[in-house]
């Protein structure tokens, strides 16, 4: 099992930056994607094979340069119009990571996000799919984000109460 090379690390960060993904801070877009693909929190912990999987996923999300377009458009076969947008999905991941930080659990973030979607929207995403939220509309995505914001607030209040007691 070979470890990730510095060139792979550079390639991952460059590809994420080209896609406009956030790469710094807790629960950033890039680390959420890395966790979704590999189940690992740190890019430096990846094996060379896992790094290739992450790079392949980033490459799938990139769009060839078009001189008439400022921002790359998402692949319509992955994110058709009316479906949950990539920015909504990234927001959901950031929120669930925030919840996990405030309210630690043995349950992985992906399972917590799937459970939250089932609880609040009544629909469970297939977290093993290329686009787990394929069957969610933009409206459902907005509802899920608002529900996760409330869950995040509740987890932060719980954490504050725990910190005051201890």
> Which class best fits the helix and strand makeup?
mainly alpha
Strand/helix succession: HHHHHH
Taken as a percent bin, the fraction of beta residues is under 5%
Helix content: 55-70%
Secondary structure elements and their pairing?
Layout: H1 6-18, H2 29-38, H3 48-61, H4 86-102, H5 109-121, H6 138-165
Name a few traits of the molecule.
6 helices, mainly alpha, 166 residues, single chain
Brief description of this entry?
The protein is 57% helix and 0% strand. The chain has helices at residues 6-18, 29-38, 48-61, 86-102, 109-121, 138-165.
Architecture overview:
- The chain has about 170 residues and is mostly helical.
- The protein contains 6 helices and no strands.
- It has helices spanning about 5-20, 30-40, 50-60, 85-100, 110-120, 140-165.
- Helix 2 (about 30-40) crosses helix 3 and helix 5 (about 110-120) packs across helix 6 (about 140-165).
- The longest helix has 28 residues, at about 140-165.
- The chain is globular and about 45 Å long.
């Amino acid at each position: 099992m070979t470890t990730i090379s510095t060139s792979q690390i550079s390639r991952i960060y460059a590809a994420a930056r080209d896609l406009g993904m956030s790469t710094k801070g807790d629960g950033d877009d890039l680390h959420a994607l890395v966790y979704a693909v590999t189940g690992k929190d740190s890019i430096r912990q990846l094996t060379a094979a896992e790094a290739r999987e992450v790079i392949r996923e980033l490459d799938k999300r990139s769009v060839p340069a078009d001189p008439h377009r400022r921002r790359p458009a998402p692949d319509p076969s992955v994110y058709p119009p009316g479906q949950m947008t990539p920015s909504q999905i990234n927001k959901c991941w950031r929120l669930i990571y925030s919840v996990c930080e405030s309210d630690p659990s043995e349950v992985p973030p992906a399972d917590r996000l799937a459970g939250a979607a089932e609880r609040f929207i009544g629909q469970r995403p297939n977290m093993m799919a290329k686009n787990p939220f394929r069957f969610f509309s933009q409206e459902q995505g907005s509802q899920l984000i608002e529900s996760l914001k409330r869950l995040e607030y509740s987890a932060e209040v719980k954490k504050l109460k725990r910190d005051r007691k201890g």
